[in-house]
């Protein structure tokens, strides 16, 4: 957790410099508290770096495609010439990501994760899939991750302004 905390401090220091007055000075502290609540419920003092990275990626302001590619990079494994994501790596990713809605009482069951894995690997004969297959599956907005594109769309609309007048 100390390593993640230091990384968050550096991250938010840079963000404060780039966006003067827009980043709360306690952002690193708040983010660390959120990560602990999601990934260290038993109080072990340990949070997996990969889990924290998945949460930070999903909560970032980046595009959905950039987030999806980053998930692949963090969870995929090199296999000769290609980089692939296995069923167990996808299970880890989905389990990590499902801690985010779980923190507000909107978790999905283990069977929901297994159904998503089955759907992602539908028609695949290999033990792992390439990035394009993974991205294609995510673009279909699987139910287990429906919250992610929904949150992205909500945050994207916050910046929309129009000149319409209402009575």
UniProtKB/TrEMBL annotation:
GO terms of biological process kind: synaptic signaling
Domain EF-hand: 65-154
Pfam families assigned to the protein according to its UniProt record, in alphabetical order: EF-hand_3
GO CC, alphabetical: plasma membrane; synapse
Protein name: DYTN protein
Domain of life: Eukaryota
InterPro entries: EF-hand-dom_pair, EF-hand_dom_typ2, KCMF1/Dystrophin
């Amino acid at each position: 957790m100390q390593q993640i905390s230091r990384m968050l401090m550096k991250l938010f220091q840079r963000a404060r410099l780039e966006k003067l007055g827009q980043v709360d000075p306690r952002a690193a502290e708040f983010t660390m508290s959120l990560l602990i609540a999601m990934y260290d419920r038993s109080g072990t003092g340990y949070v997996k770096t990969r889990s924290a990275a998945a949460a930070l990626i999903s909560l970032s302001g980046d595009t959905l495609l950039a987030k999806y590619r980053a998930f692949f990079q963090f969870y995929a494994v090199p296999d000769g010439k290609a980089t692939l994501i296995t069923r167990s790596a996808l299970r880890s990713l989905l389990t990590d990501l499902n801690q985010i809605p779980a923190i507000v009482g909107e978790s999905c069951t283990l069977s929901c994760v297994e159904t998503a894995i089955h759907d992602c690997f539908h028609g695949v004969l290999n033990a792992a899939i390439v990035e394009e297959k993974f991205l294609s599956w995510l673009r279909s907005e699987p139910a287990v991750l429906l919250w992610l594109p929904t949150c992205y769309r909500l945050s994207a609309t916050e910046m929309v302004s129009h000149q319409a007048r209402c009575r």
